[in-house]
Amino acid sequence: MKIFYLFIAALVGGLITIVTAKVLGKRSRFLVERHDNDFKQGQTLPIGANLRVLHGPNEITNFRISRFSIKNESTTDFENVKIRVWSSLDRFIIHDSIRKIGFIDTFLYHPEFTDSLQPDENNEYSDLQIAEYNSKREYLIPTFNRFETVQIVVVSTTAGKKTEPDVWVEIPHKGIKVDNRYYRTLLFGAPNDELLPFILFFSTISIVLPAVFFQNPWIIAIIAGLGSGSSSLFSAGLYRIKKWLVKKIAD
User: Fold this and answer.
1) 141 near 99, Cβ under 8 Å?
2) Structural domain boundaries in the chain
3) Whole-prediction pTM value?
4) pLDDT tens digits for 111-126?
5) β-pair partners for 230
6) The CATH number of the domain covering residues in 29-183
7) Could you count the other beta carbons within 10 Å of the beta carbon of residue 161?
């Protein structure tokens, strides 16, 4: 019985350690997740139609829709946050949109960005301005509170080329650390990569504890199998508890 109490104490202690580390590590962390969809001219869509895209008079041979979800996972509310979307000069951004999840706020381009794109006295744009607009966007988020999420959708292309377009997001704001990740597969509503330590923990416990309390190898095998098989479900539950505790402590 003493071993069981030691196990419970270790479990609680480990959870407290994880939560504390997460809170301290997220003081200024922004999580950026991206999900890309690539399309090509003439591609057959699920409804049976062929895809053909025009940008002005030009036919686009391939394009990419990139969705960026930017979440303030820190314990701080930020003001006047600049978010920059950019690509290499041989790529072209042909459409973009931005919104805050759960709000109806309308965001504008950053004043520095709009000022840099003003035409000269002859109402003409320089080649540098055109290249900058084709490859970059800058937004201003007046308030970006903890646990809020901003979503940016960018349509880009490498018109006339076979290479795939690509865009990136950066947040040049003092005190903010950005964690970039591709779209993550969810298991019971939780990201796989963050569940892995919990799954390994529960799988190990489900094998060790039966061996301590039972002598019959069949009982040990059955309990270990059931424990390992349900470790993902237990891990997802523990992950949700951890997220809830982190949010409560941050508030």
Assistant:
1) no
2) 29-183, 187-250
3) 0.62
4) 999 999 999 989 999 9
5) none
6) 2.60.40
7) 12
